[in-house]
Amino acid sequence: MAVCIAVIAKENYPLYIRSVPTQNELKFHYTVHTSLDVVEEKISAVGKAMADQRELYLGLLYPTEDYKVYGYVTNSKMFRKLHNSFTDVMCNPFYNPGDTIQSKAFDGMVSAMMVQAS
Amino acid sequence: MMSPTQWDLPPELCCRPMAFVALTGLDVTYNAIHRAIWDAFCANRRADRVPISFKVLPGDHEYPKCRTKRTSYEWYIPKGILKTGWMNKHLNLVPALVVLFYELDWDDPVWKEKQSECATKVEIVRTSLQGRNTKVAVVLIQKKTPLPPGEDLVASERAASLCNACDLSGKSLFVLPHTDHLVGYIIRLENAFYEHAQTYYYTEIRRVKSHKEFLNKTTHQLLFVRHQFKIAFFSELKQDTQNALKYYRTAYSLVHELRTHETNMLEIKTMAGFTNYKICRLCFQHNTPLDAIAQFRKHIDLCKKKIGSAELAFEHTAWMSKQFQSFGDLFDEAIKLGLTAIQTQNPGFYYQQAAYYAQERKQQAAHMCAHEVRYPTPDPLETLSGALDFYGQRAWRQGHQSIDPPDAEKEKVGIQALQVKEKDVPHSELIIALLSNAVAQFKKYKCPRMKSHLMVQMGEEYYHAKDYTKALKLLDYVMCDYRTERWWSLLTSILGTALRCSYLMAHVKDYITYSMELIGRASTLWEDQKSRIEKNLIKVLMNEVPEAEPDCDPASAKAAQALWSDRVSLAGSNRFTIEVQDYVPFGQFILLLQCKLHLYLKADCPHPVRFSKLCVSLSNQEYNQFCVVEESCKSQDILEPLSQENMCLVPGKTRKYSFKFVAKTEDVGKKIEITAVDLMLGTDNGRCVLLNWRGGGGDAASSHEAIQAARSFRSRGRVPEQHAQWDTVSIQASTMIISRVPKISVQLSHKPPALSNEMYCICVSIQSNEKTVAKDVKLTAGLKPGQDANLTQSTQVTLNGLEVCDESHPALLPDIAIGDLQPGEKVHPLLISDETVTIETVVPFDVAMKFVSTKFEHLERVYVDVPFLLMTDILSASPWPLHLVSSQLLLAPTMVALDEPQSQVEHVVLQTGECASECFSLQCPPVLNGTSSVASGQYLISWKRKSSCADAPVVTTVVTLSHVMVETIPLYVHAELPSFGRVRESLPVRYHIQNRTGLVQDVEMSVEPSDAFMFSGLKQVRLRILPGAEHEMLYNFYPLMAGYQNLPLLNISLLRFPTVSGQLLRRFLPSRIFVKPQGRQAEDASIAAA
């Protein structure tokens, strides 16, 4: 189960970020932010090598001691759910692309994916 | 550098083990030869030389005593895993080989004595090495170059005898001739030494292995580890790294098979760490970095939970930190030797993790060592030897391997001592060093965000270490990264630390800056926190001491209060200018439009803000005075701002200020830019802060917000007029001042197309519709510059309508001063109004000319002294009627007119397409040589446009007439005959034949008969004409028929000039004549035949 889920805009700022409340929230934010280094590097490498084959799966980003950080994964159910929910958010005519996500449905879905705080 | 701590790996573990060879019998201080030999061994050792560490020892050096060999392990209980001195002993104390150097030549006179002395020395060494397998070798230093082996019989005999005396095998006796090739001999020697050393370590490995059969698994577990470690270490000394790795791996798994309990946990971890270090090191050395990483991960996973004593938990984190650090070092070292690392796998991660454990350690230390306890006496950490016997054991219970500590009281005191000691560890220093190591690595592997994150941690660590200046420097550095990336949550947290730093240092300016950003919209703080910060900010503005930040160390906060009080009492340095462009405090926008300036201000802080001055600086500072709002306020106003006031910003509401000014004329064509907007908070007499926005305002967040707002559906519709929707305003920081289009009308009246060469008249009328007087009106008229050069040269302009232009007139008349233009006044010529007229130009007429004979026959050439006609045709091509005033023929000297030429086209008006012709009778005087081309002259036509006003100037167009060929002829004939004849009436015809040569001419003439005429006269005659003379022939023709009749042909042939044919001469003669029918009327006046 996930402890932190974040959706990041293409300009690298967070559209949505949520972590389990029991832990140090800031630490997760930093972890997400630093893992963008790898995302950036992977995306730019993909851009060079194979522009057409858009590989959404970025895999394990950072092997940190305590957690594993994964980039967008389409081939697991968990991320497909997240993607679908994100698509729903984007389809909302009242949502302005680039704004932070404030959606109850999205919140609920993310909560379901996370480690349940006891 | 920090002094080595308990946790640093011992140097003998980290070095590369090399075979130890001791050299004795060398006096390197006083003997130059010995010195040279020693230098050859140890100086400048290159990598390709065998790995041996040499040491010079005296001949009677005492080597470590060898303990008596144990025959049975039955009752032996080991006290620890590895003795602390063991590695060093085999690296530096117990040699694999002792070499005795001895000066002895084969032919030494006192051979016997020397031989026995040498044997004694060997014996001394042997005694000292009692019980060890260390080899002994003897090197004879000789002055003479030895003969090839086998040739020197004395040498081989004495060598054998020496070996015998010293109890040496022949392989252990060497000869070192002290000659030029010393280094070469030395290299051969050391290779031989190396072989001996390898044999020694091989036997050592065998010896340790042989112990195994005596061990049992219950009591001798520690020995299994020890022996494996030793075998591996000896293998390394033997340079057999593959086997060394194998044995270390076995040792490593054996360590983890040991029973662990609180008392031996540290020892096990220490040994596990050592073995792990060796394994990783060898893996990197074998260029299998993935094996190294896998081993390290395994090691960490196995040891992570082996915390040991809870009261000494900081020891575990210290150890963990060290594990990561030393792996990072190994990794980094391997990279320096050519290994390539990647973004997600580089030493930085290990340093980062090391730093993380160091931070943990610090926290645990702070937690566990908080109690005030004095260091216990006697020192429980002191041992008899000053060092521990075994790695990883406790000083107060060395060699103890039972599960429970032997003495609970001692244990307690020992732990206490360790805790007190831990207090003195410079934790922050350690953490910062590790973090900066990690930063350097992440910088190298393109991880800017990781780098920023680590720098934040460094900054926070500096903050904890109370080095606020360094902390602020680091935090400031990364703040803008987070700001541009728009990670507000992280930015807020950094700002919080920075605010505390600036508070504790009482840095007023920084404090204000951070406060403003923290209460701004980028901050993710809760309203109550923002409110608290803003209240503090207001206090600072009122020159008071702000409340302490929460989470500040109470002692430091107290010190800070004092600092602030000092700041308050200082009168000066109370003005601050803060560049807010790069922060996200308030928002501000500007719209500049036609010298009307709208300034929108919005505050995002929780409380209303009162400011005392707002001014806009423009690129031309003269306008600045128009763009100021100022209202002095009492310090009371800052506290209690009235939201209705003009100078008050209500949170979330947009306030609009409009300024107006009139652009100066010198700024026409320039760009006016807003260079800065200043907002003054506070008062001049209290503390005052000038917020300065560069350019058109906005801040680090606003450009993105503007984009989002533009996309948003909310931007459309329902905009309350006073509080104009913030999002809809876009920054326009500059405007172009252009001159207004003058209210002046210019009318040009003219009649195109213009005729070339004509004085084309254009009437310009200018009318000013301005309300005021237009001053210094100037007109520039003429050809538009930049056109074809020929056109510029051939076009002239004049203001005087009656004058005819010539070359002296320019093509452009610039800046014709017209003076002032009264409103409504109508003046010819004007102001900066640009009018370009394209005038089509047509050629007014074509002049064609031709030379014809008197018979109107076209002439290719004319003949000297023979009259001919020049005909000119003027064909009008102008759309306007042309008035030809007159025409004139200016003849060249080579032509003469036969009569006074008078213009025949005077005052003729030509309509389009009409043609006027003239005819002049001319003659050419003789030319020098037979034929030549002569100029004819010029034809002048004076004309003007018929339609234009009467006083328009007359233009004279000059047409140059073409050249013509003139030819001299030898004979000239012309006839004299009436203009017409009448049927049956005599028609006298007189032919004149002229000799134009200087010779007598024989001429044959004949008249051919004709049906139309009868005639009388000489039909055929041959005559002579003298030079220059003329002969006359008279014929009487009698016409028989009416109408045009061909005259009888006259044939003339010149005998001297056969080229001059009758045909040519016949040209000069009329060929026919009109014959009237017979009538009764009387003859009238004759009509010109032509």
UniProtKB/TrEMBL annotation, chain B:
Pfam families: Foie-gras_1, Gryzun-like. Signal peptide: none annotated. The keyword Transport applies. Residues 264-520 form the Trafficking protein particle complex subunit domain. Transmembrane segments: none annotated. InterPro entries: TPC11, TRAPPC11_C. Residues 995-1052 form the Trafficking protein particle complex subunit 11 C-terminal domain. GO terms for cellular component: Golgi apparatus. It is found in: Golgi apparatus, cis-Golgi network. GO terms for biological process: vesicle-mediated transport. Keywords: ER-Golgi transport, Golgi apparatus, Transport. Belongs to the TRAPPC11 family. Involved in endoplasmic reticulum to Golgi apparatus trafficking at a very early stage. This is Trafficking protein particle complex subunit 11. It comes from Esox lucius. The gene is TRAPPC11.
